[in-house]
Specification:
This protein is an alpha+beta fold and 380 residues long. Helix content is 51%, strand content 15%. The strands form 3 sheets. A 4-stranded mixed β-sheet has the order 1-4-5-8, covered by helices on one side. A hairpin with a 2-residue loop joins strand 9 and strand 10. The longest helix has 29 residues.
Length: 380
């Protein structure tokens, strides 16, 4: 595996960090408190080209390979203190955009992908109230009618739902065959019978809009079915391999920022007549943070390398998602310990990183589900 970077990529990394630090103005603390999504910064990111990094040039993107995309997302997560914004961007890139590129028709790609790259928001509606980890026990139905389908159901806890201009939603067109009847559809904002709830407050990632998609006798024409009838299972699992493998690229950059903040705190904070970094308890915590960051980086880069050479990644994607999500929580806790009361109160933003990290134990498949996947791939 070659994890070296070209001079061009290293220049791009610096440009991305500079962009994230200098050109995304907002009061993250206030937005977090008010659960406010910085849509203007989302547009700036689209104008900068972030949404198109992994999209082939033939479809209007930058055409970067997985390793380059991961490295740039990592740089973005390092420079952008708004982890909710970084998460929302990654979610759109790795779920709805990935699904449209991989299985969409030429007409669908031309019609729906370009707006997403230009600043429209996209949502990926799969979860329901009674079908979280048990994804394909969904109750949303798609009834075949002349010229298309009528969809009925509610998709819960959907990232970007309140802001979504376009959504990929999954519904069962043949309940008698279970998961093999699940079909994917592209639904646009403004379609009769389709609406989203307002954003729901949550523990962390509060700057990411989060709500429900409601389908009530919503007619979707045949040309907005994504892939064949019954292909929803395959589309979802393929998209999830991509999302699980790379969704923690930006948080990896945040881990590096946490590490640097802790080092600075350990050098500058004086107690008992010396910097707190002189105390072994503090210095060992920081050493552990460094170890976690390097370990996380290696497994993430491995998944990208496997993807680039065309190797299957289900095992490594689940390993990466499981490992990085749990390491991020551990490092966020250590960051609070290193900063003492400054880490605990909201003013300094340290505690926000911990709250944001907890969601990683749940989204894109819980840690328990990742362990189930890994065990199953090992033949258990």
């Amino acid at each position: 595996m070659d994890f070296s970077w070209s001079d061009e990529t290293l220049r791009q990394v610096k440009d991305v960090i500079r962009f994230a630090q200098n050109e995304l103005p907002c009061d993250v603390h206030a937005n977090d408190h008010n659960c406010k999504f910085a849509r203007e910064n989302w547009q700036r990111c689209a104008d900068f080209g972030i949404m198109g990094w992994s999209v082939p040039k033939t479809f209007g993107g930058a055409g970067y390979d997985a390793r380059t995309t991961v490295r740039l997302l990592e740089a973005f997560g390092y420079g952008c203190e708004d982890s909710g914004l970084a998460y929302a961007i990654s979610s759109q890139m790795l779920s709805i955009q990935s699904a449209i590129i991989k299985v969409g028709s030429e007409e669908q790609i031309a019609r729906f992908l370009s707006p997403l790259l230009s600043g429209c928001c996209g949502a990926f509606g799969i979860t329901e109230a009674e079908s979280g980890s048990d994804t394909f026990s969904m109750k949303t139905t798609a009834q075949r009618v002349k010229g298309g389908y009528v969809l009925n159901g509610i998709k819960k806890f959907v990232t970007l739902a309140p802001e979504a201009d376009i959504a990929v939603v999954f519904a069962n067109a043949n309940l008698s065959v279970g998961r093999w009847g699940v079909t994917a559809f592209i639904v646009e904002r403004g379609t009769e019978g389709f609406r989203a709830t307002e954003s729901q407050p949550k523990m962390g990632l509060r700057t990411t809009p989060f709500g429900d998609l409601i389908l009530e006798d919503c007619f979707v024409p045949d040309d907005q079915r994504l892939g064949p009838d019954g292909a929803g299972y395959s589309i979802f699992t393929t998209a999830m391999h991509s999302e699980r493998g790379f969704i923690f690229a930006s948080p990896l950059g945040a881990m590096e920022r946490q590490l640097e903040q802790s080092i600075e705190q350990a050098k500058s904070r004086q107690q008992f007549g010396q910097p707190i970094g002189k105390f072994q308890a503090v210095s060992h915590r920081i050493a552990d943070m460094k170890l976690r960051h390097e370990f996380a980086r290696l497994i993430l880069y491995k998944v990208a390398w496997l993807d680039d050479i065309g190797e299957p990644t289900p095992m490594d994607s689940s390993l990466a998602k499981l490992l990085l999500s749990e390491l991020l929580v551990e490092s966020s806790l250590d960051s609070i310990r290193n900063h003492g009361v400054r880490g605990y109160i909201s003013e300094f933003g340290i505690e926000r990183d911990l709250r944001d990290s907890i969601g990683g134990l749940i989204y894109s498949g819980t840690s328990d589900i990742q362990r189930n996947i890994i065990a199953g791939l090992l033949g258990l």
